């Protein structure tokens, strides 16, 4: 994991209302340790990169805290809450009175019998069998089509494995951005054809700023990285049994993460706290993360120059990267997230959460925004 991801997850903790208590300090230490031990390349071992022990750290400490907080909030909200939040509270109450809802279909992608799902699986499997991984046009068409399908139907582990591979940022002109479409495709004409339209095709939203969306793109023309990636897609699209939710709070957190975060922020940072005060809290948390990192890094067997380079990198990231998110603007939040699609909630989770967030950033023409993985 890059240090930028460490910062990213640190802000994740702030957004979700974690206080600097003993549990959080322990979590930060585990997170830093896991991040620094994550030295393998996604192009060399994608399954390990996608599902390493960091997931266990998040589930064991961080996710438990989120679920407990969700349950507390959903019990304490009033009936006069804004419509989207009241809708979620009603959904929670319905679940509490009818726990069979916990058995909701959590694997809608492979369970979907539409022609689109069957066609995509057949096309993907046939392409994988031919092993024509060096054909840029053919691979790109398959890759984009399958990612689009998994995003559309909210495959349960899509964001856990692929969400951290998508990031907004400046145009990818810098070196060291290995694994993006822009770096993997050398020819300018072919690069424009393959890369500039990927986001629009994957998410189905017009108006993406050209060159501003960097998508993980395995560059190995020998096929190893691409083979592993497509094999993972094939496995993800097969039938599998997923256990029911453990609680109604866990179910709400999973189905409605954006609205849940809005409730959580409102609960943890009640008026008159505003953006400036939240920014100050963020700075305090991020400073604590840097201090933890510096203390840990002193024990590593690397040169002093390397220690300084890494620590300076963290400090510089803290100085320049700011929040930009609709959850900080109530009117804007209502505009983009005010209407929930309650039908087939898991399968429509991208409509509840991801598409509004992407539309917000596209319409605002933002070069950089912060949002953690929504799972």
Molecular structure report:
The radius of gyration is 21 Å and the shape is globular. It contains 19 helices and 2 strands. The chain folds into 2 domains: 223 residues, no CATH class; 128 residues, no CATH class. The protein is mainly alpha-helical and 375 residues long. Strands 1-2 form a two-stranded antiparallel sheet. The relative contact order is 0.16. This is COesterase domain-containing protein. Keywords: Signal. It comes from Bursaphelenchus xylophilus (Pinewood nematode worm).
Number of domains: 2
Q: Measured on Cα atoms, how large is the radius of gyration?
A: 21 Å
Q: N-to-C SSE series? A: HHHHHHHHHEHHHEHHHHHHH
Average pLDDT metric: 69
Task: Give the overall silhouette.
Answer: globular
N-end to C-end Cα span = 18 Å
Helical percentage: 55-70%
Order of adjacent strands in the largest pleated sheet: 1-2
Please provide the count of β strands. Answer: 2
What low-confidence regions span 5 or more consecutive residues with pLDDT below 50? 1-21, 159-178, 370-375
Beta-strand percent range: under 5%
Main beta sheet: strand number and arrangement?
Answer: 2 strands, antiparallel
The assigned structural class equals mainly alpha
Number of helices: 19
Helix and strand topology:
Blueprint: H1 3-15, H2 22-36, H3 46-50, H4 54-76, H5 83-97, H6 108-111, H7 115-130, H8 136-152, H9 158-162, E1 166-168, H10 181-184, H11 188-195, H12 198-203, E2 213-215, H13 224-236, H14 248-255, H15 257-268, H16 275-297, H17 304-320, H18 330-337, H19 349-364
Antiparallel strand pairs: 1-2
């Amino acid at each position: 994991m890059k240090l930028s991801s460490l910062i990213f997850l640190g802000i994740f903790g702030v957004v979700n209302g974690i206080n600097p208590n003993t549990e959080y300090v322990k979590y930060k230490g585990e997170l830093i340790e896991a991040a620094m031990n994550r030295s393998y390349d996604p192009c060399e071992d994608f399954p390990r990169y996608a599902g390493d022990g960091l997931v266990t750290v998040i589930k064991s400490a961080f996710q438990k805290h989120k679920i407990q907080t969700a349950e507390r909030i959903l019990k304490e909200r009033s009936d006069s809450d804004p419509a989207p939040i009241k809708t979620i509270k009603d959904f929670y109450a319905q679940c509490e009175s009818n726990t069979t809802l916990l058995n909701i279909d959590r694997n809608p992608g492979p369970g979907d019998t539409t022609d689109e799902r069957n066609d995509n699986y057949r096309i993907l499997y046939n392409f994988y069998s031919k092993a024509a991984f060096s054909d840029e046009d053919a691979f790109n068409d398959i890759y984009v089509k399958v990612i689009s399908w998994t995003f559309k139907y909210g495959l349960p582990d899509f964001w856990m494995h692929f969400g951290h591979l998508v990031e907004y940022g400046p145009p990818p002109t810098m070196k060291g951005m290995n694994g993006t479409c822009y770096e993997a495709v050398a020819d300018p004409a072919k690069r424009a054809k393959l890369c500039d339209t990927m986001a629009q095709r994957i998410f189905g939203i017009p108006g993406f700023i050209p060159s501003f969306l960097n998508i993980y793109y395995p560059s190995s023309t020998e096929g190893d990285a691409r083979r592993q990636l497509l094999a993972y897609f094939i496995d993800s699209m097969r039938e599998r049994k997923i256990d029911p939710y453990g609680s109604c709070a866990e179910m709400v957190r999973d189905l409605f993460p954006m609205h849940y975060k809005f409730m959580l922020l409102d609960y943890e940072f009640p008026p008159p706290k505003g953006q400036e005060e939240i920014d100050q809290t963020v700075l305090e948390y991020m400073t604590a993360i840097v201090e933890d990192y510096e203390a840990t890094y002193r024990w590593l067997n690397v040169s002093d120059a390397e220690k300084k380079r890494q620590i300076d990198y963290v400090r510089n990231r803290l100085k320049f990267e700011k929040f930009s998110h609709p959850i900080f603007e109530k009117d804007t939040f209502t505009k983009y997230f005010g209407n929930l699609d309650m039908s087939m909630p898991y399968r429509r989770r991208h409509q509840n959460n991801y598409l509004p967030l992407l539309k917000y950033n596209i319409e605002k023409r933002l070069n950089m925004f912060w949002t953690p993985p929504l799972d």
